[in-house]
């Protein structure tokens, strides 16, 4: 599932459209070279329902997907259960793609939050959208919506579980709102996507 979906998504972003990345090494090094059991949490804006797997597939090297069985390093993510657990086969498909269902509005004490904290505490990678939903550009005018506190809860849970502080790496992308506009069911071509990767953020004093 990871291989097929990543190939399709990469085709959309790098062949049908053009994708460029700034400060990519910061992500690549933390993705592939960090010493486990230190985990990785990436956070980004959420402008399209195709951000993941689209943007993530363009950022992860194809060879890293091909060797997933050896390192288990491809990202985990969470998705509203109305989409990724709408039926038993849909649930199996998303689960095979390392995507777990979460209840929208269910709060930060859901069992899935603890499960993901356990994964991060042993060195896995989790990608989250701190807005908790797609925020259409016309609604936020190119800015982040209100950030929910799931990331903070995740960091505290990892600490409580005895795991080392994970790397928290932000990135911001533009153009996905045109590739897969909000509420539109087709993928568009000829657009430009740009991803700006930031530097790791230290939350140790807050935890």
From TrEMBL:
Keywords: Acyltransferase, Lipid metabolism, Membrane, Mitochondrion, Mitochondrion inner membrane, Mitochondrion outer membrane, Transferase. It is a peripheral membrane protein. One of its GO terms (molecular function) is O-acyltransferase activity. SMART domains: PlsC. It comes from Micromonas pusilla (strain CCMP1545). It is found in: Mitochondrion inner membrane; Mitochondrion outer membrane. This is Tafazzin family protein. One of its GO terms (biological process) is phospholipid metabolic process. Residues 40-176 form the Phospholipid/glycerol acyltransferase domain. CDD domains: LPLAT_AGPAT-like (cd07989). The keyword Membrane applies. Belongs to the taffazin family. It catalyses: 1'-[1,2-diacyl-sn-glycero-3-phospho],3'-[1-acyl-sn-glycero-3-phospho]-glycerol + a 1,2-diacyl-sn-glycero-3-phosphocholine = a cardiolipin + a 1-acyl-sn-glycero-3-phosphocholine. It holds the Pfam family Acyltransferase. The lineage of its organism: Eukaryota, Viridiplantae, Chlorophyta, Mamiellophyceae, Mamiellales. GO terms for cellular component: mitochondrial inner membrane; mitochondrial outer membrane.
